[in-house]
Amino acid sequence: MVKLLTSLSGKRLITYSYRGLRSFNKHQSRPKMALDYYTFGPYKIRSKEVFYSTHLSFAMVNLRPVLPAHVLICPRREVKRFADLTADEISDLWLTAQKVGSRLECHHKASSLTFTIQDGPQAGQTVPHVHIHILPRKVGDFEKNDEIYDAIDEKEKELKKKLDLDEERKDRSPEEMAQEADEYKVLFS
Question: Where is the active site (predicted)?
Answer without folding.
Answer: 131
